[in-house]
Amino acid sequence: MDDHFIKPGYPHDHHVCLADAMATAKAVCSERGTRLTEMRRRVLELIWGGHQAVKAYDLLEMLSEPDRKVRPPTVYRALQFLLENGLIHRIESLNAYVGCRVPLSHHISQFLICNRCATVIEMAGEDIASMVTREAENHGFLIDSQTVEVHGVCAPCTGPQT
Amino acid sequence: MDDHFIKPGYPHDHHVCLADAMATAKAVCSERGTRLTEMRRRVLELIWGGHQAVKAYDLLEMLSEPDRKVRPPTVYRALQFLLENGLIHRIESLNAYVGCRVPLSHHISQFLICNRCATVIEMAGEDIASMVTREAENHGFLIDSQTVEVHGVCAPCTGPQT
DNA sequence: GACCTGCATGTAATAATATAACATAACATG
DNA sequence: CATGTTATGTTATATTATTACATGCAGGTC
After folding, report:
1. Cβ(B154)–Cβ(B119) under 8 Å?
2. Using one digit for the tens of pLDDT, what is the confidence trace for B17-37?
3. Of A94, B12, B35, B117, whose CB has the highest number of CB atoms within 10 Å?
4. A15-73 confidence digits (pLDDT tens)
C-alpha cells in the first residue's frame, strides 16, 4: 500500500501528520490574520496527538500542572477558535474533537468512527456531499452545514483479512 | 400541495401525526413484546408534541408536578427505551430527541434541521445511505450506524417564494 | 518609552446534559 | 400468593459547557 496516503488506524509515522497539521495551521492563521497563540497551538497539538477524537476535559487535564490548573473556558475558547478556523472538527456523537485534514470547507464533515479503537477517519466524499445537497434542495432546504457520522469497526480492527 | 404527505414546518393537522405515532408505537411494542408503559407513552407523546427536537430536561419539567418531581434517570430510561425500539431519534448536534417516522431501520438517520424554527425533517435517502455504505466499504469499514445531520433553513422559513 | 486599544487568558461560579448505584414498586406467571 | 423480572423512584455525582467579570499582553500611535 502506498505510504504516501496515511490511513489513520494503520501504523504510520505520526509525527509527519502532526508536523503537517501544525504547519498548515500556521499558514491558515497567517493568511487569515488570526493568531495561533501558545495555548491554541498546544491544544491543536494535543488533539493531533493521534487520530482519535479528544475530549475537552482530557485536554484540560493534559494542559494542567499540579500547581497551574487550566480552567474549562480556556480550553473551550481554544477549541472554538480552532473550530472557527477549520483546524479541527467536533464529533457530535462523541462530544469530542479531532484534527481536520482539509481546513477549507469546514461546514462539510464526514467521519468514520471506529467503536473499537476510537480512530476517526475523515472522508472527503464530494459525491455524498452533493447528494445530500440535492436531497436538501428537493425539500426546499437551504444548507448551512452538513455532517455525516458513521459508527462501526475500522479495517485494522476487523483483522487483516476481511 | 398534497395534504396526504405532511411536511413538518408547514401547517398541518398535527394530531394526526401524534395519533399515528402513538398507534405505531403501540404496534411496534406489541409485536416485539416490549411494554409501552405509562411513562414511556407520556414521554413519546411529549416528543411528538411537534416536529421540533425536545431536550431531556424540558421533558423532565413537563412531566413534573409541583409536588411530584420526576428525576433525570426516569426520563433518560424512557428515552433509552424509545431509542432502542426505534420510536425516536437522538439529534446529536442538538442533544435533543425527535419522533421517528420510520420505526424500522433505526441505525440510519438523516435529518434536515432548521436553525430558525428548529423543525427537524427526517429524510429517507436510500441513495445517500447506500452511497455512505459504499464509501465506508471502500475504507474497509464495517458499519453499525450512520447519521446525517444537515443544518440550515427550512422551506417555510425562507419564505413562500425562493 | 508611555499610552491606549483590542484581543487573549485567568478565575469563580454555575448551567446543561447524563449516569451510577441502590431501593422500591408493579407485573407476569407458575 | 410466592417468585423472578422488569420498571420506576431516589440520591448522589459525573460529564460537558457557558456566563460574567477581572487581568494580562501584543501592537500600534504619539
Report:
1. yes
2. 999 999 999 999 999 999 999
3. A94
4. 999 999 999 999 999 999 999 999 999 999 999 999 999 999 999 999 999 889 999 99
CB contact under 8 A, B147 and A149: yes
Share of chain A above pLDDT 70, in %: 93
Considering any atom of strand D, list protein residues whose CB lies within 7 Å.
A 55-57, 71-73, 76, 90, 95; B 34-35, 37-40, 69-74, 77-78, 81
CA nearest to B154 within chain A = A141
Give the three-class secondary structure for A91.
strand
- From chain B, pick out residues whose CB is under 8 angstroms from the CB of A152: 136, 141-145
B76 CA to C24 C1' in angstroms comes to: 19
What one-character-per-residue DSSP string does chain B give? --TTS--TTS---HHHHHHHHHHHHHHHHHHHT----HHHHHHHHHHTTSSB-B-HHHHHHHH--SSSPPPHHHHHHHHHHHHHTTSEEEETTTTEEEE-S--S-TTEEEEEEETTT-BEEE---HHHHHHHHHHHHHTT-EEEEEEEEEEEE-HHHH-S--
Is the pLDDT reported for residue A3 higher than 60? no
What is the distance between the alpha carbons of residues A86 and A88, in angstroms, rounded to a whole number? 6
CB-CB neighbors (< 8 A) of A109 in chain B: none
Model's pTM, two decimal places? 0.92
Q: Which domains does chain B have, with CATH numbers?
A: 14-155 (1.10.10.10)
Q: CB–CB of A158 and B139 under 8 A? A: no
Q: In B, residues 84-113, which contact A (CB 8 Å cutoff)?
A: 92-93, 110, 112
Task: Tell if the CB–CB gap between A145 and B150 is shorter than 8 Å.
Answer: yes
